[in-house]
């Protein structure tokens, strides 16, 4: 029997949506291996958030402690590792968020576990779970077998459905022992925006070098559709928009219902971050631009002409 431990994450007292996708992956693993499902939430004052995780058929472990108030991987990893040992976890995983990507490898090292990152599916047959993960900017998918006793992984939230409701699990207090730390938490600077968070938005409007730094027409469309703004690396590198707008291999991976790419050529490194979107609309004045190969709808034209027309149509259509 292979028990499964999922590391969840809370922000401002709420479990992050990405964690529910990780828990969905955990449910798949537990079903497949016949193991029991556990989920751990670490932080300070996370009692209510921990309770909200109780309806997914997993035992919830709340590690609620002053020493865990900051999301420091160095402090959180020993608690995760100790819990994994205590419950006999074979699989230890999290969503590939900034927190998950920071914490999981540290916990894996403490557990002598091999690790697969950005996993998109569990492949293989029966008890042998292979971790499918993208390589070469998503051009190659590798099925990786982890041969250590404990196996660690992070999943791409966009590739797994959220956990489905299950039996109400017990919420237990996890043992917390934090050794002397070499890192110190200094501060957290939150980027405040009226728009939805890029990775959680239903609609994303992204701009590239073709915008020449003028994102106003994109902002108008994003606001008309209640969407978030994204960008190619070219737009970020030019200093036109903040780093955290970057979509792609070295940026964020998004899979909204609607992705609008305006003035973006469609380089593989960009496509790696958005090809899972349900509907892709490309606006580019070059009919040969590679983005049209993956677009569901392509508009060959100047974005400065096309976008205002689209905004007017959306506003007319929605009665604004
Ligand atoms: C290791 C590595 C990692 C990378 N990671 C990323 C990543 O995470 N994300 C990412 O995006 N890139 C990434 N890149 C960069 C990537 O290779 C491309 O250089 C980048 O995506 C190009 O951005 P772009 O499409 O905005 O610019 P360009 O390729 O220059 O395309 C601009 C497009 O705008 C069109 N255009 C121009 N004017 C207009 C107009 N008025 N109206 C309509 N269309 C117009 C042009 O026809 C053109 O197709 C990475 C590269 C490397 C090597």
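^ Assign residues to that structure.
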């Amino acid at each position: 029997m292979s028990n499964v431990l999922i590391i969840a994450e809370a922000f401002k007292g709420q479990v992050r949506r990405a964690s529910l996708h990780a828990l969905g992956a955990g449910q798949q693993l537990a079903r497949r291996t016949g193991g029991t499902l556990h989920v751990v939430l670490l932080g300070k004052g996370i009692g209510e958030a921990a309770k909200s995780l109780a309806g997914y058929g997993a035992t919830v472990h709340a590690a609620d402690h002053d020493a865990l108030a900051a999301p420091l991987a160095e402090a959180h990893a020993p608690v995760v590792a100790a819990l994994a040992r205590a419950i006999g976890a074979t699989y230890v995983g999290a969503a590939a968020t900034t927190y998950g990507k920071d914490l999981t490898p540290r916990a894996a090292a403490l557990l002598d576990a091999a690790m697969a990152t950005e996993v998109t599916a569990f492949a293989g047959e029966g008890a042998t779970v292979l971790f499918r993960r993208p390589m070469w900017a998503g051009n190659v998918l590798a099925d990786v077998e982890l041969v250590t006793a404990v196996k660690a992984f992070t999943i791409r939230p966009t590739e797994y459905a959220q956990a489905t409701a299950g039996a109400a699990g017990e919420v237990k207090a996890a043992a917390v022992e934090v050794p002397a730390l070499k890192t110190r938490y200094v501060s957290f600077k939150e980027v405040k925006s009226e728009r939805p968070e890029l990775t959680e938005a239903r609609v994303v409007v992204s701009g590239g070098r073709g915008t020449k730094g003028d994102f106003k027409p994109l902002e108008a469309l994003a606001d008309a559709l209640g969407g978030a703004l994204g960008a190619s690396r070219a737009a970020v590198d030019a200093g036109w928009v903040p780093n955290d707008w970057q979509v792609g291999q070295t940026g964020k991976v998004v899979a909204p219902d609607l992705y609008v790419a305006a003035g973006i050529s469609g380089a593989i490194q960009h496509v790696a971050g958005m090809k899972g979107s349900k509907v892709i609309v490309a606006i580019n004045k070059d009919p040969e631009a590679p983005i049209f190969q993956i677009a569901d709808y392509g508009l060959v034209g100047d974005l400065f002409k096309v976008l205002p027309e689209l905004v007017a149509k959306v506003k007319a259509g929605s009665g604004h």
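The first strand starts at residue 3 and ends at 8.
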